[in-house]
Automatic annotation (TrEMBL):
It comes from the Bacteria. It is found in: Cell membrane. Its cofactor is Mg(2+). The keyword Isomerase does not apply. Its main location: membrane. It comes from Nitrospira japonica. The lineage of its organism: Bacteria, Pseudomonadati, Nitrospirota, Nitrospiria, Nitrospirales. This is Undecaprenyl-phosphate N-acetylglucosaminyl 1-phosphate transferase. Mg(2+) binds at residues 164, 224. GO terms for cellular component: plasma membrane. The keyword Cytoplasm does not apply. It is a multi-pass membrane protein. GO terms for biological process: cell wall macromolecule biosynthetic process; cell wall organization; lipopolysaccharide biosynthetic process.
Length: 355
């Protein structure tokens, strides 16, 4: 009961702070001015991520007070939690500060990537969060050996940036956060992992509060100060879940696949053409859907349905036999291939109609 109250407080705080940032000018507020790469048409505040982070921190504080006051909570958190959490929080703080400065005035690419790589290295080597092997249904686990640490660092940096790449449509990143972290919370609850349950529930609750103001038509965006730390946190919790055997790496990949596949395929396509992959563009599948004539609201609602389907697929995958896992991954890949083809056909029809 106390936990539900904390989550309700966090969601309400995120809603209230986001509303204030959307309405009132302050040194924390910066505007996202539309350009040729944007989907929005009017200057919009992009400091909503501050509301997310502040409400999560307050939720952590309330949880810490409850932990200290309730005798039955002793032993609730695992041994070594304090030192590990400091490393993780410190890493998130690093990318948050750099992202805030980037929102305010723009920072060189090497500064942003350098800070993200340093934060990822702290989590991988300082805390020991890494993927040591990748299970292949029907084949078995493929050990990464000494590649495990650098691959995990690259994975964290990629998760951090793809979250930022995908924060380009009203309600999209906020919805993925509420739904994706909500499914991670389910696995934390199901596996009896209090830390995973606590953090993911707080993030999901804050995202739900933020989403009230971010749902199409959005009054505020989360900005880099929100998307970058959220992407980093998602990646770190994926590695934590794998290390503590809540699931194998395919489970969180399935949950966040609407983000991961769109961003990865788009970046690979752009890199193949020789485009600058770190620059803004309008080539992601969700952007192409809007540009082909779908409204933000219709597009994001379809994406929410896809997110829920992927989360449900992850739950089924977690309890399936090896043979059924092969079937699940095949169906998953086939559905996304079909969706990509559908977007392409939609664009072709829109082009023909405009001639």
């Amino acid at each position: 009961m106390m936990g539900l109250l904390v989550f309700a407080v966090v969601g309400t705080l995120a809603w209230w702070i986001t509303g204030r940032l959307a309405r009132e000018a302050s040194f924390l507020r910066s505007l996202d001015h539309p350009n040729e790469r944007s989907l929005h048409s009017a200057p919009t505040p992009r400091s909503g991520g501050i509301a997310l982070l502040v409400s999560i921190l307050i939720g952590l504080g309330l949880a810490a007070i409850g932990y200290a006051l309730v005798p039955q909570s002793k032993g609730f958190l695992p041994k070594g939690f304090a030192s590990a959490s400091l490393w993780i929080v410190g890493s998130i703080a690093l990318v948050t500060v750099v992202s805030f400065l980037d929102d305010r005035g723009g920072l060189p690419v090497w500064v942003r990537f350098g800070a993200q790589a340093a934060a990822a290295a702290i989590v991988v080597w300082g805390v020991g969060l890494r993927v040591s092997s990748v299970p292949i249904p029907g084949v078995g686990p493929v050990a990464l050996g000494w590649f495990a640490a650098p691959v995990s660092v690259l994975f964290l940096v990629w998760m951090t940036n793809l979250y930022n790449f995908m924060d380009g449509m009203d309600g999209f990143a906020g919805g993925m956060t509420a739904i994706g972290f909500g499914f991670l919370a389910f696995f934390g609850w199901r596996s009896g992992h209090p830390f995973m349950l606590l953090i993911t529930s707080l993030v999901a609750a804050s995202a739900a509060g933020f989403l009230i103001h971010n749902f199409p038509p959005a009054r505020i965006f989360m900005g880099d100060v929100g998307s970058i730390p959220l992407g980093f946190t998602a990646g770190a919790l994926m590695l934590l879940g794998v290390r503590d055997r809540l699931f194998d790496i395919w489970v969180p990949l399935l949950i966040f696949s609407p983000f991961i596949l769109d961003a990865t395929v788009t970046v690979v396509r752009r890199a193949w053409r020789g485009a600058r992959i770190w620059e803004g563009h309008r080539e992601h599948y969700y952007q192409r859907l809007v540009l082909s004539g779908w409204s933000h609201r219709r597009s994001v609602l379809v994406e929410y349905g896809l997110m829920l389907w992927c989360g449900g697929l992850a739950i089924v995958y977690r309890g399936a036999t090896d043979r059924w896992r092969m079937v699940i991954l095949f169906v998953w890949m086939a559905v996304f291939a079909g969706l990509a083809l559908a977007v392409h056909r939609r664009e072709s029809r829109a082009d023909l109609g405009s001639r």
